[in-house]
Amino acid sequence: MTDSAQDYIANVEEACGEERDFIVVFRYDKKDEAIAKILKRAKLEKSISQLIYELTFKDASFRLYRTGKAVFRKLADREKLDGILADLLL
Amino acid sequence: MFDPYKIREDFPILKRKINDYPIIYFDNAATSQKPKQVTNMVKEFYEEHNANIHRAVHTLSQEATELYEEAHEETARFINASSMSEIVFLRGTTEAINLVAYAWGLHNLTKEDEVLVTMMEHHSNIVPWELLSRIRGYQIKYVDVNNDGTFNYDYFQKAMSKKVKIVCLTQVSNVTGVINDVKKIARIAHDNGSLVLVDGAQSVPHMPVDVKDLDTDFLAFSGHKMLAPTGIGALYGKKELLEKMEPFQGGGEMIKRVSFDQASRRCIISWNDLPWKFEAGTPNIGGGVGLLAAIRYLKQVGMENIKEHEKTLTEYCLRRIQECKKVTIYGPKEASLKCGIVPFGVEGLNSHDVALFFDAYGIMIRSGYHCAEPLHEEFGLSSSARASFYLYNTREEVDRFIEVLKEIEQTA
User: Fold this and answer.
1) Using the beta-carbon criterion (under 8 Å), do A65 and B350 form an inter-chain contact?
2) Helix H or strand E segment including A48
3) What is the pTM of this model?
4) Rg for chain A (alpha carbons), in Å?
5) Is the model more confident about B372 or about B405?
6) Where are the alpha helices (DSSP H) in B322-369?
7) Range of the domain at B228
8) Which residue range is the domain that position A14 belongs to?
9) What's the CATH code of the domain at A48?
10) 311-350 in B: which are within 8 Å (CB) of A?
């Protein structure tokens, strides 16, 4: 992951038992900035009460939460996730 | 009269909002919120009585000692133990189970023995026994559960033999909320000469627990799940067993005398009285005081009232959740078989996604394995979402939970 992306991320967890779903937790003090960047770059498929966003970026689909977390679904591996985050948080 | 709305006034955190939504705290099986009565008493302890216990003759030390000992006495009364000699304060359930494993198991289990553990255990009642078996070489037998997650008494009875030296089981499953008939299990275990260790982490906070009636040899539980601060919990052990056991950890406080023998050039050590023999070093005094306040609070509300309230909420939640077509409830669907825990899954969504969706609306639930991976494997699940109730939760909160659950369904 790039330094720029790393600045925004507190933690990345692989969802237990699921097929390569990743939970990204953004740093509390940087979450609003991270969300703004992601919303600018990813394609918004659906917004639920401006709290939850269904998004796509390249060939990945993910859900972004106003509370500062995102769930990326069915990615091949962590490397793929890191690449996506690097592009989204550039 | 039991009134959850009045009770809520004692919990300042419940007034918080997340994303402008009032929080709904349904993660009580993980930890409970703390009432002002507990936080105030801990604050008062540190501001007015703080000192080390049992070590000094000054006033503050005497006050701290009295409070800490009263916490043991109150805990003993709460679970109907004979005296505070049977109550050891530790960090929580995990440390309490480890104490039994290492202070009893290490010295009493051999290669010929068996330890019975159920498939519905939290990792804290599995891993210590697995670790110790690598040292002592005994066999661990896992007792299967029925398809609905309830305890399989037939399987247990068949697995029971004179070889079994200890049966380790939870009174309430932290995944399904299933309540086990500990009294019946203990009778069968004792008939075979086995001891019984009960994980009471999910039972002691939510229902009346009487160690004499259950006739359990050990009972472990955590303060933080029953309104007390984190880092304090207790192990109940029958006095005659605790007396025979070796200490768990060595240090100050747990010894009566350490004298140097010139002839052998060794120290001759005698252990302190119970329960201090098992409380090496300066204990979590503030935590103990918090536990004292928490138990007083729970006793005032009434454990029967709490149990009934949670049962009512669980029944209502289980009924309403059936309105959600894409939601599956795991474990038994009958509230009488369980405590206030509702595990579920939403078709097409992983449990973390479900929990994060709820979180966006200020509703706190748990997702994942809940530290009980074997049970999830038994159910063929990769993970589950879990809502769990306590004395301050309300029917309206369940309604809101169902409303958001329906919205989650639509996005799946």
Assistant:
1) no
2) strand A43-48
3) 0.93
4) 12
5) B405
6) 351-360
7) 39-299
8) 3-88
9) 3.30.310
10) 350
Percent helix, strand, coil in chain B, to 5, is: 45, 20, 35
Given CB atoms, is B412 within the 8 Å cutoff of chain A?
no
- Tens-digit pLDDT profile for residues A55-77: 999 989 999 999 999 999 888 88
Asked if B257 reaches chain A (Cβ–Cβ under 8 Å), the answer is no
**What residue of B is the nearest CA neighbor of A25?**
B356
Q: Quick check: ipTM above 0.95?
A: no
CB pair distance less than 8 Å for B356 and A63:
yes
Q: Are residues B295 and B324 in the same domain?
A: no
Residues 6+ apart with CB under 8 A from B315: B335
pLDDT at B373: 75
Q: Which residues of A touch B368 (CB under 8 A)?
A: 15-16
- Shortest distance, CA B410 to any CA of chain A (angstroms): 11
Question: Which residues are registered as beta bridge partners of B234?
Answer: B89, B221
Q: How many domains does chain B have?
A: 2
Residues of chain A positioned with their CB less than 8 A from the CB of B407: 48
Side-chain half-sphere exposure of B344, counting CA atoms within 13 A: 27
Query: How far B355 CA sits from the closest chain A CA (Å)?
Result: 11
Q: Is B350–A69 a contact, with Cβ atoms under 8 angstroms apart? A: no
| Per-residue model confidence as pLDDT tens digits over B183-198 | 999 999 999 999 999 9
Q: Give B68-93 pLDDT, tens digit per residue.
A: 999 999 999 999 999 999 999 999 99
